[in-house]
Design brief:
There is one protein chain. By secondary structure, the protein is mostly helical. The protein has one domain. The chain is 78% helix and 0% strand. It has 13 helices and no strands. Helix 2 runs antiparallel to helix 5, helix 7 runs antiparallel to helix 8 and helix 9 crosses helix 10. The longest helix has 28 residues. It is globular, with a radius of gyration of 19 Å. The two termini are 27 Å apart.
Length: 241
């Protein structure tokens, strides 16, 4: 417990000193404020001016926005992992009882809990999802698995923090996956299947529509996330050894 507390305090100090990390952590909360304060008048304007009711699309839109905390938390954790690697922290913990594996597990677990809480705040605070439905909870759980993937992606490939920041921004292109699933017709939507976000969105859609293929999309999302997580974890360990 003491190790967890020390890591949490140390991370918070680092976040407070780095405006990029601070803004990244705050992004889901800023998004929630936008949904609560700015979206209602925008929706009223659409209804009054064009007769467009946006409410039926809330569930679909949340299927995309629900992955924002995973992206931002993963980006923040990945940048901190790069700092740890460049500053020799991982080399130091390698000779302690904690070990590199234990340290990485603690950092990714802490990021996962943080992202999970932020995602719950976004979903419940938005008022767009039925709080009695199990579908959105499944989506939150699977989306949380993206956090270590987004964290390990820059940490495994970037040579320094500048490159890591660029790769983290590139990871944002993964949101093309759910857009492909939503907007492309027929078999063209499968172009987004290489991205884990595609599977989370399709799973979320199936739950929202109470479709009979819910178990298949859920299983597919679990498999894709597990494969990517193991792949990036292996690449990262090769990089730091």
């Amino acid at each position: 417990m003491n190790r967890w507390w020390m890591l949490t305090i140390g991370d918070w100090r680092n976040i407070r000193r780095d405006w990029v990390l601070l803004l990244t952590l705050a992004a889901p909360l800023l998004l929630l404020l936008f949904i609560r304060l700015a979206v209602p008048p925008l929706e009223r304007f659409l209804m009054e001016a064009f007769g467009v009711d946006a409410a039926p699309y809330h569930g679909w839109i949340m299927g995309i926005l629900i992955m924002v905390p995973a992206l931002t938390t993963g980006m923040m954790t990945g940048l901190m992992l790069l700092d740890d690697r460049d500053e020799g922290v991982l080399s130091h913990v390698a000779v302690t009882p904690l070990s590199k594996t234990g340290y990485l597990a603690m950092r990714l677990s802490l990021a996962g809990v943080t992202g999970f809480v932020l995602t719950l705040m976004l979903v419940l605070g938005s008022g767009w999802m039925d709080g009695t439905s199990a579908g959105w909870l499944w989506t939150v759980l699977i989306a949380t698995l993206q956090i270590p993937i987004y964290a390990l992606f820059p940490a495994a490939f970037a040579g320094n923090k500048v490159e890591g920041l660029a790769l983290s921004k590139l990871a944002g292109l993964s949101f093309l996956g759910p857009l492909a699933a939503w907007m492309l017709p027929g078999g063209w939507k499968w172009m987004g299947a290489v991205m884990p976000t595609f599977w989370v969105f399709q799973m979320h859609r199936a739950w929202v529509e109470t479709s009979s293929d819910r178990p298949w999309w859920t299983a597919g999302a679990l498999v894709v996330h597990a494969v990517l997580l193991l792949l990036f974890l292996r690449l990262f360990r090769r990089r730091v050894e």
